[in-house]
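Support request from a user on the community tier.

User writes: "When I paste my structure tokens into the form, the page sometimes reloads and wipes my input. The last time it worked, I copied everything first. Here is what I submitted, just in case something in the input itself triggers the reload:"
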């Protein structure tokens, strides 16, 4: 399906640094070494509600990965899905009386508008699951040929016993896995399962639900296998970064990694699993089920999207943090300070700022450190320091290219 339009990126002098990122599956910070093309898959939204700040925080983190890689001279191949058929979407459609397709289309369009406003670089392939059901079914067929599946009624399950690397992504204990699986859409207690952690690959048609034909009968894909199929067909296995919020570590990324491994025989499915922290409101993680959401579209109505972007960048992407109304105010003030300084006829030499921002960003996307480097330059420029007429333009280019903030 249609992606969204790309913001212009100003070129920067010299070349960026190799990006180091915290890899959940390695339990530590590792240098990414994409060669020559960097390949990234970021799990997309289930489009039944508007983009909230938790989403924006996640997509911004991977936008920074994209930007730092490009600055280091890589071509970036970026794929994202939209889970445009799934239980929560169908439930919401039922509750509101809106056709599920119309609901998905409306929310995906709003998501595109939000991403454009926040200057998030678009994916090369933005794939709705409903567009690739046949490919997902084909992957399930491959898993079946490997002896990794079984059926309960006409639902098809993946047998965790067939996955030798299961647990490698999250490193969680079985007890933790069982708890999270139950919380996050799994069905550990379903009768007839061989193991509580076996997961659904294909949900057979139920009355009133959309379905597609397949070798297993009519039905629709399970959640994890859709991303595995899209990533394999667009990027191939062994891609550089699999990304999402930290609530995707388990079960989503763990189960997807095992599907990819068993289907292809290749490991790792992704070289690094990278996860953004959770944004809370009123002491609780921002989530649809709790209803404590701050929508990007609503914030945009009152604030410059670049201030929203700066408010998010003020936190390290891996941190869990709490949104408070004051943060948009501080970010707006910072944006005004930067714009004012970057609009001066001259300022202090900005090449050291470029070096500092590159170093901070290459170090696991240390955005608070990068912001501090620009803050320091802006304060000096505002104080009348420096006579370099090229410096303000270079600072605008740094903010634009590496941080995605248009001044
Ligand atoms: Zn996914």
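"...and here is what came back when it finally went through:"
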């Amino acid at each position: 399906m249609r992606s969204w339009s790309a913001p212009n990126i100003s070129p920067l002098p010299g070349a960026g640094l190799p990006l180091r990122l915290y890899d959940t599956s390695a339990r530590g910070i590792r240098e990414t070494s994409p060669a020559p093309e960097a390949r990234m898959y970021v799990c997309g939204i289930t489009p039944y509600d508007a983009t909230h700040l938790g989403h924006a925080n996640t997509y911004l983190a991977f936008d920074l990965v994209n930007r730092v890689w490009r600055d280091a001279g890589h071509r970036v191949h970026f794929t994202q899905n939209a889970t445009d058929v799934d239980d929560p979407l169908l439930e919401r459609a039922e509750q509101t009386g809106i056709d599920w397709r119309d609901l998905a289309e409306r929310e995906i369009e709003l998501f595109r508008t939000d991403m454009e406003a926040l200057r998030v670089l678009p994916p090369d392939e933005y794939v709705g699951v409903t567009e690739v059901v046949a490919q997902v079914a084909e992957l399930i067929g491959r898993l079946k040929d490997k002896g990794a599946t079984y059926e309960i009624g006409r639902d098809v399950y993946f047998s965790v016993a067939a996955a030798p690397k299961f647990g490698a992504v999250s490193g969680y204990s079985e007890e933790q896995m069982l708890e999270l699986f139950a919380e996050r859409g799994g069905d550990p207690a379903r009768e007839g399962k061989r193991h509580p952690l076996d997961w659904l690959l294909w949900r057979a048609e139920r009355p009133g639900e959309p379905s597609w034909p397949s070798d297993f009968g009519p039905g629709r894909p399970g959640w994890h296998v859709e991303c595995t199929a899209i990533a394999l067909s667009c990027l191939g296995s062994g891609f550089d970064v699999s990304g999402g919020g930290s609530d995707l570590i388990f079960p989503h990324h763990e189960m997807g990694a095992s599907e990819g491994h068993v289907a292809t025989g290749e490991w790792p499915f992704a070289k690094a699993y990278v996860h953004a922290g959770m944004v809370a409101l009123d002491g609780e993680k921002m989530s649809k089920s709790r209803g404590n959401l701050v929508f990007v579209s609503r914030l945009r109505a009152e604030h410059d999207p670049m201030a929203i972007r700066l408010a998010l960048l003020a936190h390290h992407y891996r941190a869990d943090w709490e949104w408070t109304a004051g943060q948009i105010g501080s970010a707006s003030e910072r944006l005004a300070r930067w714009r004012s300084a970057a609009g001066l006829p001259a300022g202090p030499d900005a090449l050291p700022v470029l070096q500092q921002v590159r170093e901070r960003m290459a170090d696991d996307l240390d955005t608070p450190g990068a912001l501090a480097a620009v803050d320091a330059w802006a304060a000096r420029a505002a104080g009348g320091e420096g006579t370099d007429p090229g410096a303000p333009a270079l600072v605008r280019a740094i903010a634009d290219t590496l941080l995605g903030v248009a001044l």
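Agent notes: The reload is a front-end session timeout and is unrelated to the input. The chain has a mean pLDDT of 96. Residues 350 and 391 are 5 Å apart (CA to CA). Escalated to web team.
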